[in-house]
Write a structure and sequence with these properties.
The chain has a nine-stranded mixed sheet. The termini are close together. With 220 residues, it is of the alpha/beta class. The longest helix has 15 residues. Strand 4, helix 3 and strand 5 form a beta-alpha-beta unit.
């Protein structure tokens, strides 16, 4: 069984001491730091920015896992790659056709980052199948994208199973990530279904036993 990757989401971190919050995740054993970018168009809320990624990307040793919930990933995807993102994940739903999605993948890779694609809760995971060979990561949203602290949507488990089977059948190394409502219980369900990467925000940040919670997820 592959080791689990934990990606604390700084959406839930204390922004007044963000570097120390990231370093806390690193010291706790996390391998990724999950950075949510929202433009107020693709999703209602706004969060973080290109300048933020430029400022923090080299202040730690974690993988900068940048999830862009934006309406214009063709331009912003490569921009975040150049700003220091190690992985840029854009949304399937943000582009109108598969040619645009393939172009977005190519542009992000050319800009120097690995690339992921995400689907919202109401989008079938099978839409990702044509892209799996080109993707380094696929992200299943287990809440509606746009804000932290939402409850886990159980239909995500079926999506994870479908994608796990598709990735394994193709003998790919594409990582399978899940984001939204992750805690010890839902994290275990996701790992059992086939997830490789667990994004957790409010379950980790704001708790005195932060390190123990990260270690618990790593041990699932």
């Amino acid at each position: 069984m592959k080791p689990i990757i934990v990606a604390p989401s700084i959406l839930s971190a204390d922004k007044t001491k963000i570097v120390s919050e990231i370093l806390k995740a690193e010291a706790a054993g996390a391998q990724f730091i999950h950075i949510d970018i929202m433009d107020g168009l693709f999703v209602p809320n706004t969060s973080l920015s290109l300048d933020f990624v430029k400022q923090i990307h080299d202040q730690h040793e974690l993988v900068n896992d940048v999830h862009i919930m934006v309406a214009n990933p063709l331009d912003l995807g490569p921009a975040y790659a150049k700003a220091g993102a190690d992985i840029v994940t854009f949304h399937y739903e943000a582009l109108i056709d598969d040619e645009a999605r393939k172009l977005c993948i190519a542009k992000i890779k050319k800009a120097g980052a690995k690339v992921g694609m995400s689907v919202k809760p109401n989008t079938s995971p099978t839409v990702l199948f044509p892209f799996l060979k080109q993707l380094d990561l696929v992200l299943v949203m287990s809440v509606e994208p746009g804000k932290g602290g939402q409850a886990f949507m159980p239909n995500a488990l079926d999506k994870i199973k479908v994608l796990r089977e598709a990735i394994d059948e193709r003998h790919l190394r594409t990582l399978l990530e899940v984001d939204g409502g992750i805690n010890a219980e839902t994290g275990k369900q996701c790992v059992t279904a086939g997830a490789d990467v667990l994004v957790a925000g409010s379950y980790l940040y704001g708790h005195e036993d932060f390190k123990a919670r990260v270690q618990g997820l790593l041990a699932l």
